[in-house]
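**User:** Once you have settled down, spend some time on the protein underneath, comparing sequence with structure tokens, and judge whether sequence predicts the tokens.
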Amino acid sequence: MDREIAPSVIRSQRRRRLAVGGTVLSLGVFAYLALAGLIAPSIDRANIRTAVVEAGAVDSSIAASGVVVPEIEQVITSPVEARVLRIFERPGARLREGQPIVQLDVSEARLTVEKYAQDLAIKANAQAQKRLTLQKSLIELDSKTEVKKLQLASLESQLRRDQELFKQGLLSQELLRKSELATTQAGIELKQISAERENAQEATRTELAGLDMEIGKLRKDEAEAARQLDLASPRAGRAGVLTWVVTEEGASVQKGAVLARVADFTSFRVDANVSDVHAARLSIGQGAIVRINNDTLEGTVRSINPTIANGVMTVEIGLAQPSSPLPV
């Protein structure tokens, strides 16, 4: 049978619970204060900088080294196989447009031009002779045609008379037949002369067309030889600085050999060397920042040379301001 717990027992249990809870709370506060003392900051709050983080792209860069070079460099080559007679300017000279740089021996090129001129004169003479021959042939054929027309007219008139005489019984069948054959033969001969005239005209026209083509080709060859002769006195194609020129007077140069280089020092580009480990990250059109001492220039990757030498590849960078005075 259940009995009611005495009030004194209930009060004793409550006091015990409060004592245990107070002890636990005191121990927790003590532990917190002790731990806070152990993890005290090693730097002052005044030395800490904070900032608001913003979302956006993160730029990555590729380090490279390079040289500033003229954007345009004219290469002057020898148009003919020749010998250097004289060198007018030396490297470092400032040139104006059209200024001569070296003088070449152009005697062979001049002989070539004269040869083409002679060949042209020979072909023109042959063409004139062919025209005269045609005219003479046409005159002879025209004369034969007129004579044959007169003969045909006479034979046709004789045939008509013979036909009247045959009708009257005054001419035999055999004589009439001879008259008809003579008339027919004269007509055939007249057609043959006309055909010869047309054939002569067509044959001569074909030969003249062939001569025209040969003359046209010779004229082009002569013009090219004259141009080569004119170029045989190399001149600066633009104002600039002579950076290199053939060194020896009297030296023989082959056709196409480099005679001089002229750089335009008014605009520049950068030829940069990049490690091949970055090859996959490079692309044409990428932005570039060129640092020259303490100054910077903006640019763009314009071309990438795929050739790798000693683990290095070359990238050409075009400057946003190619005429900036910084590269000079």
Notes: Residues 7 and 13 are 10 Å apart (CA to CA). The beta strands are 65-77, 82-87, 94-95, 102-104, 240-245, 252-253, 258-275, 287-292, 295-309, 312-319. The chain has a mean pLDDT of 78.
